[in-house]
């Protein structure tokens, strides 16, 4: 295999803060970085035009590119019609920031897509994603839905119902293995027309789990990254593991990405563990074995 995709690092996974994390990502040999842009200094509301220009110049001075911003607003995704106007507006502002910083991808969770198309929640999610997709398409950009809350086939059916591919896919193979038990290799082929960004992560499923309990649905606890990370580290349902130690078949997974012509980033995300820098360094070495 001659894997040529650029390697990214989720800066927040390094737990060093933004500037130190960017420098460390460069030192570790990354080609690009993904950055959370929801709270704190990266919240679009806190980023003045001058701050945006300065950050873009700083990242370029390091020889890095931004693979994507993470605009995941948590909670119940876009299931709640009362919460959606504010969430849609903030998502648009995150996409504006992404384009200014030089990327056209914002990754997010939209909430668990219900099984029935006649479910009012399904219809509300369609409405919200249609608005976001049209907005993104006008900018030649994408809101990329992270895989995991539903099977690849079910997510494809939902995306096919929208008028554009402005809402596409951030493919995370570990989420599929850990939560739905879906096959990420087949998932690549199923979602091939929508994959615009990927995460490189590994894990195992310990028992069957209700996806609504993990990723949040109306009537269930809202999604929390902290709660997901706690379960992934020491819970009874699934575990996130260093690359190569879980149930993702990376040889077949990377081959599938090559087969569909995906040339974008393989972005390393490490949400658990006491030594994220060491785990990410090993992940880079692991990916390079396929080059």
Automatic annotation (TrEMBL):
Residues 22-289 form the Xylose isomerase-like TIM barrel domain. Keywords: Isomerase. The keyword Isomerase applies. One of its GO terms (molecular function) is isomerase activity. InterPro entries: IolE/XylAMocC-like, Xyl_isomerase-like_sf, Xyl_isomerase-like_TIM-brl. The keyword Isomerase applies. This is Xylose isomerase.
